[in-house]
């Protein structure tokens, strides 16, 4: 199947951070976060990036687990303590790829295909569950001011 076939088959929609997604699960159970917000215990989505698509730098207030399904290897770039860490999500274990990865709560992160052609289909789960109220898309200027040594990387993963 092509990326277009998968997008149509799974009824994926454009995501504000880039790529395509569809929520597939939202726990009916809720919890109260430290900030007093009610959130589902867990949520899950399908997520697809193709060709030069990127998941632009963003952060959320919950841990997020990524699971590889098919396609090309995907690089997840996470800013931790002012340094970038790259996790390669894929199925070629001999090349250091892993089938699942965790992005800790409140970390800036983005993703792209390791090679800029093809597609990657993954799932992401968030616990406590995802809510757009907890989503922050990075602003290039502000993130570059915070991490001036990463300006080139930030330009790759933010919108002008």
From TrEMBL:
<feature type="domain" description="DUF985">
    <location>
        <begin position="5"/>
        <end position="138"/>
    </location>
</feature>
<dbReference type="Pfam" id="PF06172">
    <property type="entry name" value="Cupin_5"/>
</dbReference>
<dbReference type="InterPro" id="IPR014710">
    <property type="entry name" value="RmlC-like_jellyroll"/>
</dbReference>
<dbReference type="InterPro" id="IPR009327">
    <property type="entry name" value="Cupin_DUF985"/>
</dbReference>
<dbReference type="InterPro" id="IPR011051">
    <property type="entry name" value="RmlC_Cupin_sf"/>
</dbReference>
<dbReference type="InterPro" id="IPR039935">
    <property type="entry name" value="YML079W-like"/>
</dbReference>
<protein>
    <submittedName>
        <fullName>Cupin domain-containing protein</fullName>
    </submittedName>
</protein>
